[in-house]
Automatic annotation (TrEMBL):
It comes from Bifidobacterium amazonense. InterPro entries: P-loop_NTPase. Keywords: ATP-binding, Nucleotide-binding. The lineage of its organism: Bacteria, Bacillati, Actinomycetota, Actinomycetes, Bifidobacteriales. GO terms for molecular function: ATP binding. Gene3D superfamilies: P-loop containing nucleotide triphosphate hydrolases (3.40.50.300). This is ATP-binding protein. It comes from the Bacteria. SUPFAM superfamilies: P-loop containing nucleoside triphosphate hydrolases (SSF52540).
């Protein structure tokens, strides 16, 4: 234990970090992924090109923190990187991409290369694209013309993005570097931007240029990408990010404690491993609560048990309540019908349970998908995006009434 740590009360040293995108004290079970990234970066420096990588998995599995970690590794290895979160609005997504690209250029460490990149950026920005767009003159109040102008603007951004990536990748390649674009919540991306990103990845790969998309999203992401461009299947390395094994989970509790001169005793640890059930988010929630409830070293089973209700509340708040509240009353009825079958079922089963025709429910089903509460793992099936959401819903809707509104 460091001198500083020794002087602080146990409580204030709590290393656990529940919360979306919060970097955990110990990133467990990801050795292979980190090696994959290391290798890709090493190869890029040698001018060798790889495929992009797509991660898919449920919420709370650690996709966002993995992307953030990769991003930091890439920067440390002298790459130019951009990290964005898709939101479904093409214009906004391009704005973010260009904004982040310009920041990546300004942050680039080698001044000579940085100047080359900045010049490429200005060059692409100054190109007039009128001749490829055949743009309609916008007359105010004419909504068709406004739509055309919007489409033109999005198309212009697509051209600009492609030109920009080409120029930047060339400059970077000469400098033994590369451009990595990290895209979180990729399944939500507008079709326009998704198609452009896939196309650009394809072309850059063919030309041996160091440009990689590293994406993360829900389990339906691989299917969504393939639907946008069928060759997306061959373009990326697809990796599922699922539950951690017990040894990794145990490390997830024990290592952060050990780093501070503490530990969990055997009974405490085995109870924690059971509670976490392989879910990274749960490690942080139960670890934090047990730590706060403990006044001994090693931390004992008693503290874990005392912390359990606190952790469950933390999980409710962090993962379930806000999502449940986002749904409309009919949406909640749909979710409750789903939950009665577990974490996944068929749309037909939901309709039957609700006593309605499946076609009557397609709009509400779609709105729940758009809210990110559920996704369709395959045609005709529907699943929760968050582990344990079904259990939460059964708990808050004990009777036939679905009147729960959070508190
Ligand atoms: N490999 C891991 N080991 C331990 N904790 C993790 C790991 N990955 C994620 N976490 C924790 O799980 C929570 C959710 O991570 P996040 O990246 O937001 O998940 P996702 O993006 O898949 O929804 C965070 O509190 C994070 O600290
Ligand atoms: Mg995330």
């Amino acid at each position: 234990m460091s001198d500083i740590a020794a002087k602080l009360p146990l409580h204030s040293l709590n290393p656990f970090m529940p919360g979306a995108g919060k970097q955990p004290p110990e990133l467990v079970g990801r050795t292979h992924d980190l090696e994959l990234m290391d290798r890709m970066l090493a190869r890029t420096k040698l001018g060798l090109v790889d495929r992009g990588i797509i991660y898919s998995g449920l919420r709370g599995m650690g996709k966002t923190v993995l992307l953030l970690k990769f991003n930091a590794m890439s920067i440390a290895q002298g790459m130019a990187t951009v990290q964005i979160e898709a939101n479904g609005d093409a214009a906004a997504e391009y704005d973010e991409l260009f904004h982040e690209l310009s920041l990546a250029i300004m942050r680039f460490r080698k001044p000579g290369v940085r100047q080359g990149l900045a010049d490429a950026f200005s060059r692409v920005e100054s190109i007039s694209l009128d001749f490829v767009l055949g743009s309609a003159k916008v007359e105010l109040g004419d909504s068709d013309a406004r739509d055309t102008a919007r489409d033109d603007a999005v198309r212009a951004s697509s051209y600009r993005f492609e030109l920009l990536v080409e120029s930047l990748a060339e400059e970077l390649k000469n400098a033994g570097s590369g451009l990595l674009v990290f895209v979180d919540e990729f399944q939500d991306m507008s079709p326009e931007v998704m198609t452009t990103l896939i196309t650009v990845q394809h072309k850059m790969g063919q030309r041996n240029m160091p440009f990689y998309i590293i994406g993360a999203g829900l389990p339906n992401l691989p299917g969504t990408l393939t639907k946008a461009r069928s060759y997306a299947e061959r373009l990326f390395e697809y990796r599922r990010i699922g539950r951690l094994d017990d040894a990794a989970v145990a490390d997830g509790f024990q290592k952060p404690a050990r780093d501070l001169g503490y530990s969990f005793d055997d009974a405490a640890l085995s109870r924690l491993v059971g509670l976490a059930n392989g879910y990274p988010y749960f490690i942080q929630a139960y670890g934090k609560a047990a730590w706060d409830a403990s006044d001994s070293n090693p931390i004992a089973l008693e503290a874990v048990e005392k912390g359990e209700p606190v952790a469950r509340e933390e999980l409710d708040e962090g993962l379930y309540v806000s999502r449940w509240q986002r749904a409309t009353p009919l949406g909640r009825e749909y979710l409750a019908a789903m939950a009665s079958f577990g974490d996944s079922c068929s749309s037909a089963q939901v309709a039957e349970r609700m006593g309605r025709a499946a076609s009557d429910l397609s709009a509400i089903r779609l709105s729940l998908i758009e809210l990110g509460l559920v996704y369709s793992p395959e045609r005709g099936r529907i699943s929760f995006t968050v582990p344990g959401m079904d259990e939460f819903i059964r708990r808050v809707t004990p009777s036939e009434s679905q009147s729960y509104d959070g508190r």
